[in-house]
Structures are given as structure tokens and as C-alpha cells.
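Reply to dn_fold:

You asked what the input looked like. This is it:
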Amino acid sequence: MFDLLLAQYGVRRDGLPGEWSTGYEDASQPYTPAWQEGVTSVPADAVVRLAREFAHTAEKTRGRCVIVMGAGTNHWFHSDTIYRAFLGLLMLTGCQGVNGSGWAHAPPGSAARGRPLLDTGALPPGHRRVTAGSRAPGGCRPGRCP
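and this is what came back:
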């Protein structure tokens, strides 16, 4: 399964057939930082730096990294692919299922889209889902605490 995951991201693995990139600077093969720069206009160096910083933080904190997002990606046609990218990053860095880590997706009105992914274990153990009208710990209503 791991080989299939890496093949999807264009990572060469011994014994698997196919054409593979020669490095981060190879813009001729998909999924490299150089290739994505032509698609997204995000500089390849920025992508490499961000990936290294996220992985370094995950290593130093033993997987306590979280991606916090609102409903922004829901406005794009392939939002489910963006969600998979978030979850793939969290799984590959050991941040899925670690208390205080994972994917914080809680924008109002978009719970139906994220719900199946949250049910797969994206929330840390012991997470208490706070819904509109429920009381947060300490008795405050969400958005109305002193």
C-alpha cells in the first residue's frame, strides 16, 4: 500500500516500473516542486521550505501538527482532492491520530462535506465536538465567552 501511495505522488521506488523525476528541480514529471510551480505559480523553493518546516515540526513535536482551515477549499471544484492532500501530508508525517494534531475543519455550513473524513479518525482521541447551541467546557456558549 505504501508503494502505491508513493507512486501516486511520483516517488521512485526500487522494483516499480515507470518514469520518475530526477529530483525536485525536474519540471518534466508531475508532482515535483518545479512542476507545480508552472501550474500554481507558487515558487518551488517556497514549497520545499514549507514541506521541510512542517516535517521538522512534526518530528520535534512527535506528530503534534495541525492543519486549521475554514470553508475556503469548498469553493473549488476539486475540494475533495485538496482534502486528500491535507490528510496525506498528516499521515506521511505521523500527525494523524495524535492528540492535539490532525485536521481542524469546522466551518459553519460545511460539516456535510468534511464529516466522512472526520469519521475516519481525523480528530484526536477524546475530541468533544462542539455544535451550535452546545456549551463549551466551563459553561460558555461558543462565541460568547468572556
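Residues 62-124 form a domain with the Dimethylsulfoxide Reductase; domain 2 fold (CATH 3.40.228.10).
Hope that clears it up.
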